[in-house]
Amino acid sequence: MEDDGSNSGLLSSSSIIRLKPVINRVKTHSKMLQGSNILGHERPVVIRLSYTTFVLGTVCLPLLGLITCVFISSVFHFDDSTGTHCQVPNYLPSISASISLSPECHIWRFCIGLHSAPRFLVAVTYFKFYKTRFASRLLESSLSCLNLAFSISENLGLLLLTYVSSNETYFVHKEGFVLFIVSSLIYMLITCRLWKAIKKYSLSPEDAKSHHWKVRFLLLNISFCAFAGFFYWKHNMYCQSGSYTLFALFEYLVVFSNMAFHLTAVWDFKSREVMVISCSDDKDF
Fold it and tell me: Which family does it belong to (predicted)?
């Protein structure tokens, strides 16, 4: 009986000794599978981008596209881009004329198409930001919904006037331009109203700075729109030399002030990041 007990004790201890390396090998094998993705599950790729870089890239795309198109039109297609029904001397091409020629139209469409998706993302970001800030305030909460609607409408108007040139269908191009201008003005007005409320209850100097420059760029945009409209009317009514040139100049300033207004998002979301995450399908092959 004593011999049997001792034998069973030896067997149990030897079994434990033999099991330990087996368990260690299983753990090691499991870690290797997780680290080397042997089962075919890829780890997601995460790309982080500061919101400042994101906004700068979004605004610079149409800015560089416009400058490039105006430069090419002025140097290589000067007569075609500055000629009008009045047959009077002009020295600057309008934006519509610049983006209607080739290769300018392809450059402009590429830049606007590439920047449109980030523009929609910025619009949604602002909407969520306003809804969080004004969750208990009905007026500002309603204005944030209108703000999102006009932001989307502004972007759609820009896409419409971009992909339907004045040489192809002038009426559609004109309606797209009107939609862009009207939507952008209303969007900027609502934005300034919302940031006035934010500045009132915020202690951050960045919020006050953002509201201050938003109001300035709004007033500049309204002034440039008024001057552009005046010289466009004067050109069509009296065909005076130089009127179309001044219209084109103020048209540029309208676009530049609009871009500057959108650039204030750098202050609004300075501490935020944009994350792009690639998701892999959980499939074994």
Answer: Belongs to the PGAP2 family.
- Cis peptide leading into 103, omega within 30 of 0? yes
Q: Which sign, positive or negative, has the C-alpha torsion 171, 175, 176, 180?
A: positive
CA dist., res. 279 & res. 45, Å (int): 8
The rounded distance, in Å, linking the Cα atoms of 195 and 272 is 18
Tokens of 122: 């910025």
pTM score of the predicted model: 0.80
pLDDT digits (tens, 9 = 90+) for 186-241: 999 999 999 999 988 877 888 899 999 999 999 999 999 999 999 999 998 998 88
Cβ atoms of 150 and 183 closer than 8 Å: yes
Residues linked to residue 46 through DSSP beta bridges, in sequence order: 277
Estimate the crossing angle of helix 243-263 against helix 51-76, to 10 degrees.
Answer: 170
Nearest alpha carbon to residue 126 among 115, 137, 136, 118: 118
Asked if 74 contacts 81 with a C-beta cutoff of 8 angstroms, the reply is yes
How many residues comprise the chain? Answer: 285
Convert the pLDDT of each residue in 55-70 to its tens digit. Answer: 899 999 999 999 999 9
